[in-house]
Amino acid sequence: MKIDVFTLFPEWFGWFSSQRHVANALACGSALEYVNPREHTPLGAGQVDDTPFGGGAGMVLRVDVLDSALRAHYGVDPVELRERRRVIALAPSGRPLDDALVDELAAEAEMTLLCGRYEGFDERILEHFASDVVSIGRYVLSGGELAAMVLCDAVLRKLPGALGDERSAHEESFSAALDGDPEYPHYTRPAEYRGWRVPDVLLSGHHQRIAAWRRERSRERGAAAEPPRRGA
Ligand SMILES: C[S@@+](CC[C@H](N)C(=O)[O-])C[C@H]1O[C@@H](n2cnc3c(N)ncnc32)[C@H](O)[C@@H]1O
User: Fold this and answer.
1) Ligand 1: which atom is nearest the Cα of residue 119?
2) DSSP readout, 167-214?
3) What pTM does this model have?
4) Which residues line ligand 1 (CB under 6 A)?
């Protein structure tokens, strides 16, 4: 998996790339590359953004700057680029990132992530350059960098070699192995602490009963109501 991240703050990713499962994925053939649109801007003084038409607070990332940065990196018109590879713009209003989308992205050989800043992207970037618009949740971050790291983390840990034990990524919350339900509870030693006992079935050594117990707990968690939307 080769991931190119377009960001005004590539230095944010130094810590991220050094984390063990990310470093493992990179050692196993994945690659993370960073492109700073400021280095490709056709405007003077490194300008990348501008005031919004119609007025209002903040600055908007310019479509000509992203056009120039994508074109410089890939050597093609970004309008065509998105036909060839996933070009994912990160935005609060996008498609929610969930395990199904992570699986979908983990199957790609390469993809591009666009990190917004300030008020966000000129809408024409989303309309004409992005193949997908993805949100990591219904809240607003200051920039797309953390959202890109969340997406990369979730995708890279699905790839062979990223985790110490391949089984860790198989039966996880929201996975197909659990029919999309959250994972069951885990316990470790001590078997009793301050009067809180680990469920007997987990100490029984009876694998079928343990599996059935875990599946049941997972289903229960899945059946729990979704949190209400604001104002609902
Ligand atoms: C301050 S935000 C812009 C918010 C925008 N004005 C709005 O109200 O939707 C700046 C950038 O952070 C990123 N961002 C913020 N929250 C995000 C989220 N929940 N999911 C994905 N990206 C997010 C996006 O790239 C966005 O362009």
Assistant:
1) 6
2) GGGTS-TT-GGGTTPPPPP---S-SEETTEEPPHHHHS--HHHHHHHH
3) 0.95
4) 90-93, 115-117, 119-121, 135-137, 139-144, 147
Q: Tell the burial category of 178 from Cβ atoms under 10 Å away from its Cβ (0-12, 13-18, 19+).
A: buried
Which of ligand 1's atoms lies nearest the C-alpha of 136? 20
Residue 123 — pLDDT band, cuts 50, 70, 90? Answer: very high
Question: Which range has the worst mean pLDDT, 85-99, 157-171, 177-191, 207-221?
Answer: 157-171
In this structure, the number of other CB atoms found within 10 A of the CB of residue 27 comes to: 10
- CA–centroid distance for 203 within its chain: 36
Place of tokens 């119609």: 54
* Whole-number percent of the chain with pLDDT over 70: 97
Question: Six-digit token pair at 158?
Answer: 């699905």
